Amino acid sequence: xxxxxxxxxxxxxxxxxxxxxxxxxxxxxxxxxxxxxxxxxxxxxxxxxxxxxxxxxxxxxxxxxxxxxxxxxxxxxxxxxxxxxxxxxxxxxxxxxxxxxxxxxxxxxxxxxxxxxxxxxxxxxxxxxxxxxxxxxxxxxxxxxxxxxxxxxxxxxxxxxxxxxxxxxxxxxxxxxxxxxxxxxxxxxxxxxxxxxxxxxxxxxxxxxxxxxxxxxxxxxxxxxxxxxxxxxxxxxxxxxxxxxxxxxxxxxxxxxxxxxxxxxxxxxxxxxxxxxxxxxxxxxxxxxxxxxxxxxxxxxxxxxxxxxxxxxxxxxxxxxxxxxxxxxxxxxxxxxxxxxxxxxxxxxxxxxxxxxxxxxxxxxxxxxxxxxxxxxxxxxxxxxxxxxxxxxxxxxxxxxxxxxxxxxxxxxxxxxxxxxxxxxxxxxxxxxxxxxxxxxxxxxxxxxxxxxxxxxxxxxxxxxxxxx
Amino acid sequence: xxxxxxxxxxxxxxxxxxxxxxxxxxxxxxxxxxxxxxxxxxxxxxxxxxxxxxxxxxxxxxxxxxxxxxxxxxxxxxxxxxxxxxxxxxxxxxxxxxxxxxxxxxxxxxxxxxxxxxxxxxxxxxxxxxxxxxxxxxxxxxxxxxxxxxxxxxxxxxxxxxxxxxxxxxxxxxxxxxxxxxxxxxxxxxxxxxxxxxxxxxxxxxxxxxxxxxxxxxxxxxxxxxxxxxxxxxxxxxxxxxxxxxxxxxxxxxxxxxxxxxxxxxxxxxxxxxxxxxxxxxxxxxxxxxxxxxxxxxxxxxxxxxxxxxxxxxxxxx
Lengths: 469, 318
Fold this sequence. Notes:
The complex is a heterodimer. By secondary structure, chain A is α/β, with parallel strands linked by helices. Chain A has helices at 5-40, 79-95, 108-120, 133-141, 149-153, 157-160, 194-199, 208-220, 234-248, 251-258, 267-282, 298-304, 316-324, 326-330, 367-377, 381-389, 400-405, 410-421, 430-433, 436-450, 456-464, and strands spanning 52-54, 67-75, 99-105, 127-130, 172-173, 176-177, 180-182, 186-193, 224-226, 308-314, 334-337, 350-353, 356-360, 426-427. Chain A is built from 21 helices and 14 strands. In chain A, strands 1, 2, 3, 4, 7 and 13 form a 6-stranded mixed β-sheet that branches. In chain A, strands 8, 9, 10, 11, 12 and 14 form a 6-stranded mixed β-sheet that branches. In chain A, strands 5-6 form a two-stranded antiparallel ribbon. In chain A, strand 2 (67-75), helix 2 and strand 3 (99-105) form a beta-alpha-beta unit. Mean pLDDT of chain A is 87; it is low at 33-64. Chain B folds into 2 domains: 3-54, no CATH class; 83-310, Orthogonal Bundle (MetI-like fold), CATH 1.10.3720.10. Chain B has 14 helices and 2 strands, in the order ααββαααααααααααα. In chain B, strands 1-2 form a two-stranded antiparallel ribbon. In chain B, helix 4 (83-114) runs parallel beside helix 8 (176-201) and helix 11 packs antiparallel against helix 14 (281-306).
């Protein structure tokens, strides 16, 4: 029975080896099996796709042969906007039981990552908010988004006719439509505090020289000339994008978007970056701009309280100020101008989007159910009314101009409507135009430029390397 | 397997020799079976991910398309760019600074708390609370405190001390690493204080009595008795600080997201950003493997230098 030490050692090693092999096999099999399981048996959890269960309500004549379709919707709406979506969805859910929709809301910046990971791992929501453009094209090419063209041209053609043709652009890939418009048209512009400008006898910052003068005067008087949300990176991109357009025209970026070699080396880009660094050297941005996050009401608070003079942001900020600092608007203190002009021939271009989009996952239980929900809730009369009158937005539906004229926010909305209508180009935000990977590299480089960690030339060299990928 | 065998396996250290001879084969099988849960855990959460990451590092994977083989090109890309070296350097900076700040403070606090006084019980509770919060909570709270426009520190500096420009501790690329080390230290000094506290209590009083008879002063007592006696505690605490700060992610992510620019882009953040913000999981895996290798090297060096594995006792000769 007793064995020599050598044989004992050998037996130990044998057992250990067997154990390791068993464990390895078990682990690998577990790893392989789980991903299939999650997509088949999605139960519970906030990020799982639709579950179909036998209809609970008795005696219901639903068109879907007695099964309730449960859909999840992901959005980044906040404040009243979020409330509106919840209310309208509730009404929809209560009016029938064939389709039940659960909306879920996320913060703007984390949402982008969360959505992508959900799509890639097979846990996508049925309906998801997005900005169209490059990232949506990425998802479409990877097969994650449902093609809505046929449904829109047939069953839901009345709904499709609610919108002007121009709205479908950012959601179209290879001639097919992959998104339904939602939220309002958006432009990026320059807000300023009228009271401050009046106090220091400043002209509204309509030209670049006006802006530089305002920066100097405000700085001398201890006010932060411009409030900038540097930590979120994309608010810094607003400056770079607009300066490039104002100096060299929208065609500069169009070459970049096509992937032309060395397109980033265009002199307009380098000049724009130098202008940015000039602003940084002048101390134009508030103390701590590199660590301020967007979308937390901080920048708006500084603008509204007179601690900062100007803010370059999107028209959605009008909502935020309307909801959180209404006195600023009531007192006529919120000024808004298009981004300052530099070369007059490029002064009519705007950066913005006709709308954002709701897309439907290709793995959803029923694309038709999703479209039914969207056609009945998204931009229904109640929503259009709230968007215009309570949120100061412009829904991109036909005939909206008449509705805008009677809105309490008509000043801003009609101004914005005209701005878009008269624009010779509406360029999508760069980080939504480019693929997600390139966009992130762009944002990182912009962020480094704004704290002068890299020179304009280094920026251009870094970005040129991303072309053609 | 019968009850007799189980009884022999579970108890009686004195009889292990006998048991070994009589039941050798079965004893080892049972030992391994009992070890399975822990080994399984270790395998699933430690060994397997390392090999999976190594595997992914040879593919181009953007998260929404099926991965495609690219061989060593990811490795080339990462090792040729300056980002990885910058991240590694920042990580080393954080590791060294964390050790330099936390060890002396924890040591002194631990010594202070180890003496039985009325105040130490209450003080211990207060000193311990930072450890109870998650890194994300600590990050959000300190993010607000340090906010140069809206934060508590800003309010105190401007209203109480009349400072005109509040320093931007989290947005200044030259200072951000120090700010981060300060907040990390705030969170973890309580833990190391606890280690040193119990280490200090286990020093035999006889040594101090002998020192008193010889008439040594406080500094000599500290340097020649206390610290050498706590050698093992110091080693444990140092190893934890160094290995912990190598992979530290949560707090830095919440406070600065690697910024401003890439001034606080330590290696764990570089890995996260490459994989989950640039959506390049292949490249991210390369960074992950580099981080793993770095950690392994660090562990080997630490074990060698500190003589950890020799398991000497400081009580020899006492």
